Amino acid sequence: MRIVPVTADVSIKRDIDTGTETQREAVEAIIQQVRDQGDQAIRELTKKFDGADIENFRVTKQELEGAYAEMDQSLIEALREAITNIRDFHERQKRQSWLTTKEDGTILGQKITPLDSVGVYVPGGKAAYPSSIMMNVIPAQVAGVERIVMVSPAGADGKLPASVLVTASELNVKEIYKIGGAQAVAALAYGTESIQAVDKITGPGNIYVALAKRAVFGKVDIDMIAGPSEIVVLADEQADARFIAADLLSQAEHDEQASAVLVTTSQKLAEQVAVEVETQLAPLPKKAIAEASIRDYGVIYVARDLVEAIDVVNQLAPEHLEILTEEPMNLVGRIRHAGAIFVGPYSSEPVGDYFAGPNHVLPTNGTARFSSPLNVDDFTKKSSIISYSKQALQTNGHKISALARLEA
C-alpha cells in the first residue's frame, strides 16, 4: 500500500454513480421495455441477463419451505438471533406523532405515517446476501409498512439461494420475485401485470441497478445511490498491524473499486501494515479483486498527531470507520462524518454488518457528510397539522394577509 503524508490530497475520487453513456442508454431502454411490455419484458430480460427461463417469477410457499432443508440449523439460529438484534436496535428509532396547543386554541403538530409499500432489492448472482434482506426489511416492518416486496436475481436454474429464502421466510416477507437488474427496479417503480408498483425502492445493486434507481426517482422514492464499499481505520502506535491489514483486505475483496484506507499517527505502524497487507493478500481467494482495490484506492496516511488524523477522517467521510487507538471512545465525539463507527479492537466491521443490530446500508463516496444509515425514518413520511381557532385567526389575520400580499 502507498504510504503518504497528510499534506497530500486525502479525497477518494470515484465517479461511480453516473455510469457511462452506454450504460445509461441501456438502462433507459430496459425501463421503457418493462413499461411497454410488462411481464413479458421481465421474462425476456431475465433470460437474456441471468440465463434463467422463468415463467412464474413469484416465489412459492413450497420453495420457501424447501429452503429450510438445505440450511444448517445452527445457521438458522444465528439468523434468528441477528434478526432479534437488528429489530431491537431499530425499534429504538421509532418516532411518535405529536400535537401542541396554545392558549388561543391553536393546535399544531406532526403526523407520522408509514409508507404503504416498499420494494427491497437484494443482490444475487455470484453470492447470497441474507444480511441485505434483514437490513432493509426490518426497519420497514418496524416503521409499519404493510406491503414489502422483495426482488432478487435467480441463478441459471431459476432458483434463489436457500439462505435468501429462509431469511425472507423468517421475516415473513409475503411477496418475493426471482428477478433482478434494472428490469426489477422498473417493475417495482411502474408495475407489471403480476407485480403491483411500490412507493419506495431500497437496497444495493450493481451499476445498472444504481442507474435504474436514479432514473425512476421521482416516480418513486429511493434510499440512496450506493457506491463501492469503503473502510477507514484510525489507529495509533498501540494498534495491531495484523488486525488492521485483515480489516482493510476484508473490505478490498468486495469490489475492485472498494476503498481501504489507514490513517495513523505512527510511521512504524504504517510500514508494518503495508507489509502485512502484502503478506495476507497472497493467499486470498479473491486476490485479484483485493489487489486491484488496494492498488487503485488503498492508501496509508501518516498524520502528525490525532488532531490532524481526525481531520483526515472527517474529510474522507467514510462509510465504515474503525477507531483503534488507546482510548477510542474519547474520540467518537470528534468524528463528524462517518456512516458507522466501530470502536475498539473487538468491534470489527463484520460485527456491525451482520449481527450487532445497527443498519449496514450506509452512505458511501463521501456522502456521510450529509446523509445517514438506512433507518426507520426512511420508511415513514410526515404531515404537518394546523388547526387555527377563531380567536387566533382574528388576532393574526391581518398579519397573514399582509404576508400574502407581499408575495402577490
From TrEMBL:
Its cofactor is Zn(2+). It catalyses: L-histidinol + 2 NAD(+) + H2O = L-histidine + 2 NADH + 3 H(+). Zn(2+) binds at residues 251, 254, 353, 398. PROSITE patterns: HISOL_DEHYDROGENASE (PS00611). Its EC number is 1.1.1.23. Gene3D superfamilies: 1.20.5.1300, Nitrogenase molybdenum iron protein domain. One of its GO terms (molecular function) is NAD binding. It holds the Pfam family Histidinol_dh. GO terms for cellular component: cytosol. It comes from the Bacteria. The active site is at residues 319-320. NAD(+) binds at residues 121, 183, 206. Keywords: Amino-acid biosynthesis, Histidine biosynthesis, Metal-binding, NAD, Oxidoreductase, Zinc. It is an enzyme of class 1 (oxidoreductase). One of its GO terms (biological process) is L-histidine biosynthetic process. Binds 1 zinc ion per subunit. PANTHER family: HISTIDINE BIOSYNTHESIS TRIFUNCTIONAL PROTEIN, HISTIDINOL DEHYDROGENASE HDH. Belongs to the histidinol dehydrogenase family. Catalyzes the sequential NAD-dependent oxidations of L-histidinol to L-histidinaldehyde and then to L-histidine. This is Histidinol dehydrogenase. It comes from Halalkalibacter akibai (strain ATCC 43226 / DSM 21942 / CIP 109018 / JCM 9157 / 1139).
